[in-house]
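Title: Comparing notes on inverse folding

I've been comparing how different people in this forum approach sequence design from structure. To keep things fair, I'm posting one structure and asking everyone to reply with a full sequence. Here's the target:
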């Protein structure tokens, strides 16, 4: 039988021109493990692959990833005519339960953002960035990446650079606008370079890690779980909009999701909230 390793290397070389180094590394690690299991022999019979997955992919998440690697490898082998069939067709993908994003209740969001934080080093800055992330549904990377030219306080709009450097317009309300104006007038340190809105006391652009720590500190002070994160605010933004009657397409645009299916998970969150309300309040629940 043919050797498997040269074919794996051809696949990885092909992949390197199209995918990130991290992806190539991950595929290479999975396929090296496969080769070791098969003793370097090019034998991709479904039964052999099934036993390999059973041994080396004990959890649904691991199995799904390794199966994805196998299928990509097999597609390449068919393209270069080393295989004339797909042995992975007989392999079943694991059923993965989608974890619902955690969102604060509207009351919890109010407690988080309305607290007195005078003992913080930079209360106006911290409040401004939290208000803005919740008001506009921003990712933490989008918030720290904002420059002066991206913000229109009069129209209350933001020019946001999201995933893949794609731009969108985000909206924010009067409360966030007031918090931002207060921060700009009282605490903002002029940046050493560029025109970042959110800066640290030395004039450097605020980092995502700093914002994560800010959210955690503010959450703990009002008794919210310490695992509350900047992304929790984004989840809460989407969930609360849907709870209050916003249509899914509008929420999709505000979040900057390419696919409506990505946004639809928030409808499940809203339904789950309604179910809990019924279970706790209905006499015959």
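Reply #1:
Here's my take.
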């Amino acid at each position: 039988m043919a050797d498997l390793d040269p074919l794996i290397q051809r696949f990885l070389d092909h992949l390197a021109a199209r995918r990130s180094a991290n992806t190539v590394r991950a595929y290479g690690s999975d396929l090296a493990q496969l080769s070791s299991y098969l003793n370097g022999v090019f034998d991709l019979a479904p039964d052999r692959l099934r036993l390999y997955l059973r041994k080396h992919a004990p959890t649904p998440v691991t199995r799904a990833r390794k199966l994805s690697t196998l299928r990509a490898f097999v597609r390449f082998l068919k393209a270069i005519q080393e295989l004339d069939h797909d042995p992975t067709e007989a392999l079943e993908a694991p059923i993965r339960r989608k974890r619902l994003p955690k969102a604060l209740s509207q009351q919890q969001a109010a407690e988080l953002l309305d607290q007195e934080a005078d003992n913080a080093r930079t209360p106006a800055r911290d409040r401004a960035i939290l208000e803005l992330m919740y008001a506009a549904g921003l990712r933490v990377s989008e918030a720290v990446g904002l420059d002066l030219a991206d913000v229109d306080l009069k129209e209350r709009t933001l020019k946001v650079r999201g995933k893949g450097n794609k731009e969108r317009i985000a909206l924010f309300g009067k409360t966030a606008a007031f918090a931002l104006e207060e921060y700009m007038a009282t605490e903002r340190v002029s940046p050493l370079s560029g025109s970042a809105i959110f800066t640290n006391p030395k004039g450097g652009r605020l980092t995502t890690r700093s914002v994560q720590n800010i959210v955690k500190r503010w959450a703990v002070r009002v008794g919210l779980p310490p695992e509350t994160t900047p992304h929790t605010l984004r989840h809460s933004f989407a969930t609360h909009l849907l709870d209050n009657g916003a249509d899914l397409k509008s929420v999709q645009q505000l979040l900057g999701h390419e696919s409506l299916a990505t946004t639809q998970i928030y409808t499940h969150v809203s339904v789950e909230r309604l179910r809990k309300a019924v279970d706790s309040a209905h006499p015959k629940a």
